[in-house]
Structures are given as C-alpha cells and as structure tokens.
Amino acid sequence: MIETEQLTRCYGSLTAVDSLTLRAEPGQVLGLLGPNGAGKSTAMRMIAGFLAPTSGTARVCGHDVRRNPVAAKKALGYLPEGAPSYGEMTVREFLSFIARVRSVGGDKGYRRFDEVISRLQLEEVLDQPIGMLSKGLRRRVGLAQAILHNPPVLMLDEPTDGLDPNQKHSVRMLIDAMARQRTILISTHLLEEVHALCNRVAIIANGRLLADATPAELERQSRYHGAVSFSAQGSGVSREMLARIPEVASVEVDPLDGRVTVFPREGKPILEEVQTLLRTQNLEVSEIQLERGRLDEVFRHITTSAHPGPAA
Amino acid sequence: MSAVFAIVRRELLSYFVTPVAYVFMVIFLVLAGLLTFYAGDFYDRGLADLQPFFDIHPWLYLVLVPAISMPMWSEERSSGTIELLLSLPVTIAQAMIGKFVAAWLFIGFSLMLTFPIWITVNYLGDPDNGVIFAGYLGSWLMAGCFLAIGACMSAATRSQIVAFILTAAVCFLLLLAGQPQVLDFFQDALPAKMLGALAQLSITRHAAAIARGVLDLRDVTYFVASIVAWLAAGVALVDLKRTR
C-alpha cells in the first residue's frame, strides 16, 4: 500500500508537489498522469526516499518515509526515471549487487534471481556491461532491479518511455502479471498506457491532484462519451436531419475525412436513433462507432482548465 | 552490515573494471619509487630506514588521493545513480562508510605493493621493521584522512573536477598550516595558543612523526577523528541535498 498525506515539495519559490494526498491499495495499478513537469517524478522520488518532503509525508506499507525510511525502502521496488544504473558493471554484477544490498540470498535468492532474469529475458546479456546495452535492455535491467526482492509495492517512473512498441508490450504484460497481489504506482504521460495498464488514474498538473478516478469514470466526463460517429458517402446531406433528432445536441463533421460525430444531450442514448435515421436515408455507411469518451480530451480539459482544484 | 559490504564490493569492483585502479597503482608506485630515490636521498643518507619514503607520502597523496575520491558521490549525482542508491534500503551513513572503506582498502593495497622498497632496505642494511610497519600504518591512516576530505568534497558537488580541486586545496592548506614558514608568518599576528592549535591542526606535524615511525596515540587520534569528522560532514551534505 502507498499513502501520501499532504505531500509537498518546494524548490526555492517553486512548489513542485503541492499537498498531494493519494492512496493506492494492493491489487491496484494507479497511474500518475500529468504533463511534463507536473511533479510526477518529484512525488515518486519523495515516496522512494531519494528526496525529503518539504512538508507532509508518505507511507509505504505503513512505514513512514520520514521516520522509518529503511523499512519503507525495503518494501518498495523502484524504477527511477531513465532507469539509471552503473554502466561499467555487467548485468550480472549489477543485479548481484542489488541482491546483496537487499539481502536476497541463499537458495531462494538464486531461484528468484533466475526467475527475474528469465522473466525479463536478460539471459543473453548477463555478462555484458550495462553501459553497452540498448535503451530497451537497460530499462529491462532497471525493472529487474526493482522486482528482484519481490516487493509488495512497486513504483515505476515512466517504465515504457523510449521503448519500441514490442518492448512496450512486453513491459506492460509484465506489469499486468505482477499487478494481482501488489500495489503498483506508475507515472506516465501516455494515455494509451492508462488504458492498457491502470485501474485508477490520478491526474496531476502543477504539483496538484486534479482528478482521481477510474479510466472509465474519466471517459464519462468526456464530451465524446455516448457520441456516435460514422463515415458514410454523401453524409453531408443528412446533417440537418440528424440535428433534428430530439436527443441530439450537435453534429460535427471532420473537414478532413468527412467523418460525422453526433453528440447526445446529457448522456441520452442515441445510437439506435442515429442508425434508424441512416437506414431510412439509404446512406451507405462504411463504419459506425459508439464512442466511449476520449481520455486525451478529458486530460487536456482537466490539466488546462482555468480553475485548478481537486475535482471528481 | 551486509549492505555496507555490498557497497564496498561494488565500489572496489568499479575501480578494477575501469582503468582507474591500474593507472593509480602504476603512477603511485612509480612516483613513490622515483621520489624516494631522487628527492629523498635514499642512498646518500646512508641510513637503513624508510624515512625519505614516508616523507614524500603526504605530497603523493595530495595529488593522487583526490583522484580516487572525486567520483565517490559526484559521479553518482551526475549519472543519476544516486537516486537508485538512496532508494535502496541503506542509510546515507552506510553508503558513505561503504564507499570510504572501499577506497581506503584500495589505497592500502597500493601501499602494500611498495614492498620492494622494504625488501631493498632490508637487503642493504638492518632496519627496525617495527618502525617501518608503524610508518606504513601511519601512512595508511593519513591516506584515510585525505580520502575522508575527498569524500566530503565529492558529496558537495556534481562535478568531479571541482571535487578534485577542492580536495587538493583543503589537503594542501592542512599540509601547509604546519610548515615553519607559515607558522613564522603568523607568529606576530596570532597569539601563541592559536599558533599552537594551528600547528596541531596541520597534517604535516602528525605526518612527520609517522615518517619517523613513531605511531603516537595523539597522531592516531588526530587522523581517526579527522576521518570521522569529514565523513560525518559528507553525510550531512548528502542529506542536505535531499531537502534542497
């Protein structure tokens, strides 16, 4: 479990993290989502014990990071941003060092070591210096380091940043597989990652918590939630007729590809009405879709709104 | 405790997988040999002891020890690994001790490799080996003092070069403070007691006793206390940087 309580961090006059109160439970993958410079990394660094909070505190599995930092760090696996590691060491030497510091030893330790190596597919590069490895491999070494002691709490700062699509996929599979019994906090600015991984999202901007909800709840806030979009030939003709449906609030046509989006009034279901109308008009519809809502739009709306403050 | 050993191991490993260790050892051994014979009048004195050898140690350490201590924290900071290190379940003091001990052991090892000069002096004459042993021990302690200063300076900056220069400067001042010329210069400006304190603070005075092979408790205390104080200051600096 990770809890933060009024966690605050100032750099001189700049407040990087402002009274952040969060809570992540076992089984949850909480995504810390925010624009660059929102304070995601700073918040994580305080939870990890690398930075001292200016005020407030954080707890990892009940261990206060200010009063009992070593116990908190024992319960935590942490992948810092950019996955820093000692470039002159080989993967084996580096992971052995981590195992020793974290007292992962004995037969159990060896088994765990092999398990982690095979899980992250590092067998082939075990004896190569980390500095010579590609970005993706280095990230995997960083992940191996974070999960080596089988921690109940895992914190990953932009775990898929700079990886190619295949590597992203395998890292997400890994996180997904580990999510069941653990508390996982990941930071990202990729919305697709939220969809793929998180069962809860905390949006922060300018160091403040702006939203804390499930991805579905956030999507429901979107203007697009419940909207129907379709591509059809000659669809421009039907635009006014669509607008005449009582449940429809507005109709928009994409000027580039001519795709029509029909927005409902106040969450009213409109799919059937739209389909009926299209059928009666004998329009050739190539594709039609009920929109779930667009996270990017909600994200933009929340992080750029004029009155930032705790919401949702 | 096992965490400290893990750090000692890692640091030692990183000396030996990079050229640092080998370059240091070669330069140290060559300089120690050359300076002893040419600058130290090893033969002409006609005495079977290692005083000329130990006499040059403070000056050798002045140049070489900062090179060993400069990456201790600066490199961790500039490469970002400090974030990893400080999120491992070790205290800053444990990390500091681990790094210091590794560097100190490494210098001790280099010091041991000067054994040919000990064989030479035993071959040429009949020296007091107890005195030589005390000299080695004292020299190692002095190196520890230089290292602790370097560890503290390395904690103060992310630039290794700045760490090197600061360390060399502080060590130089501490060596200089006990030189007769400096003490004479301050003779009129400072009261006698402060002058005495200045002389006591200086490495030179304690180093001179060591070079003679006299391992006095006061000199040992001086070096041990210096090591502890500089390391503690370094720990405080690393901790301070967490809050700023």
UniProtKB/TrEMBL annotation, chain A:
Q: What are the UniProt keywords, alphabetically?
A: ATP-binding, Nucleotide-binding, Transport
Q: Which CDD domains match?
A: ABC_DR_subfamily_A
Asked if the record carries the keyword Nucleotide-binding, the reply is yes
Q: Which InterPro entries match?
A: AAA+_ATPase (IPR003593), ABC_transporter-like_ATP-bd (IPR003439), P-loop_NTPase (IPR027417)
Q: Name one GO molecular function term.
A: ATP hydrolysis activity
Q: Where is the ABC transporter domain?
A: 2-231
Q: Which family does it belong to?
A: Belongs to the ABC transporter superfamily.
Q: What is this protein called?
A: ABC-2 type transport system ATP-binding protein
Q: Which organism is it from?
A: Luteibacter rhizovicinus
From TrEMBL, chain B:
List the keywords (alphabetical): Cell membrane, Membrane, Transmembrane, Transmembrane helix
Q: Which Gene Ontology terms of cellular component type are present? A: plasma membrane
Q: Which residues cross the membrane?
A: 12-39, 96-119, 131-149, 161-178, 220-240
Q: Name one GO molecular function term.
A: ABC-type transporter activity
Any keyword Cell membrane? yes
* One Pfam short name: ABC2_membrane_2
| Protein's membrane topology | Multi-pass membrane protein
List where in the cell it is found. Answer: Cell membrane
Query: InterPro entries, from UniProt?
Result: ABC-2_transporter_component
Task: Provide the protein name.
Answer: ABC-2 type transport system permease protein
Q: What is the lineage of its organism?
A: Bacteria, Pseudomonadati, Pseudomonadota, Gammaproteobacteria, Lysobacterales
